[in-house]
Amino acid sequence: MSHLPALQIVLPLLAAPICLLLRKSSLAWLLALGVALCGLAISIVLFHRTLNGEIISYAMGGWEPPWGIEYRVDRLSAFVLLIVSAIAAVTFAFANRSIAREIPLQKHSLFYTALLLCLAGLLGITITGDAFNLFVFLEISSLSSYVLISFGRERRALTAAFQYLIMGTIGATMILIGTGFIYMMTGTLNMADLALRLPGVMDTNTVRAAFAFLIVGFSIKLALFPLHVWLPNSYAYAPSVVSAFLAATATKVAIYSLIRFIFTIFGVDFAFGEMPLQVILILLSIIAVFVGSLSAIFQLNIKHMLAYSSVAQIGYIIIGIALVSAVGLSAGILHLFNHALIKGCLFLAVGCVFYQQGDATIDNFKGLGKTMPWTMAAFVIGGLGIIGMPLTAGFVSKWYLVLAALEHGVVGMIIIISVLLGSLLAVAYIWRIVEAAYFNQPEAAAIERGEAPLALLIPTWILALATIYFGIFTQLSVDAAMQAAQSLLGGK
Prior knowledge:
Elements: H1 4-21, H2 25-50, E1 56-59, E2 70-73, H3 75-99, H4 108-127, H5 131-150, H6 156-186, H7 191-197, H8 205-222, H9 231-237, H10 240-266, H11 268-274, H12 277-297, H13 302-322, H14 326-357, H15 368-371, H16 373-387, H17 393-405, H18 409-438, H19 444-449, H20 454-472, H21 475-488
Helix pairs in contact: 1-2, 1-4, 2-3, 2-4, 3-4, 3-10, 3-14, 3-20, 4-5, 4-10, 5-6, 5-10, 6-8, 6-9, 7-10, 8-10, 9-10, 9-13, 10-11, 10-13, 10-14, 12-13, 12-18, 13-14, 13-18, 14-16, 14-17, 14-20, 14-21, 16-18, 16-20, 17-18, 17-20
């Protein structure tokens, strides 16, 4: 039990090269799925242990922090670990049947290798208590993400992967420079130790420059407007299971990293007092809500539509974080969780359509309400979650965001109006798909193909049902988000 934090990373790292050696696709998939399920079990145990406020510290190699690398699990990191590992378990279950139609058989073992490395990187970012170690895991997840995106069957997948590589490299370089600056000023890389040493050198241009580099670097990684240009094509041209996995986890882990550096290392007083971060984040996030939602309305490729929707949803999360209140931060963390479920559900539903129809444009959705009723029902549930309809998870986090905004006067009213208008725009782009699916006659070929196989429907419906469950039974997710927010703001 004491080694669970290390096992969370070691298992996927060890399994990745083994998958490469397994030439049989089904064996590589079973190994990857087994590792994902083990990771989920470990995350559940860690999450349960941190519910009472316990902080789990694991010294790698027996070297005590701050001299050695520390894995540190608190309420927030345990919550994000649970999100990443749960999404991994569901999407890995979806992968076997899905990639059969999208990736050549001889590349399947390499695909699962890259997928496990990406999972290891995302889990490592979340669990590490060392700033440089976070950068290393960030690069592991990023490099494997570029490979995963390039597996897309269209040549444009290579262009999307290259564009992501360029932007990701710029972001990673900024993060590395920022980390180097704070190491130069403090002589430590342990996050808890940095939080103790930085106040003594906070009033220096070096620390201010480090802060700026880190904020911009993480903003690129989480696709905050206008640094989101890599995201739409990356999601649109990647294999369906990769789109679902990255949309539900990669940007969420980057947001977690931003939260960790702002609230744990630099502190609220510096980030939102001495530096004008609050104004910048709220302004860019409100623009992101409108630009992302408006762009989504005009997309013919449904993956493009969902990608631009993610830009808007990231805006909601960052607004909550930038409000710097217990309710606002809780709303941001809660929407991070809810959006992972909802967007995972939507991308898996699109993956079902892609599997049966061979593409995912709006024309491919015509009449699917009759020929693929289960797939379209899951898509509608996810769509209602994106809109923020009551009894879905999306409503809960938007409700808390509105409650947080009410505490901030005129700025709060602007935020509330933005949330409402953003939801109306979401109705517009989700309705386009509903109209195509339920108010058009299906083509003869679509009738022959019928519904997606159970191997794809079951993972999709797990997330669809989770979207409803966490919209009705909110205690677990809301309590976890609120406790994490209170811990970040100095409470217990």
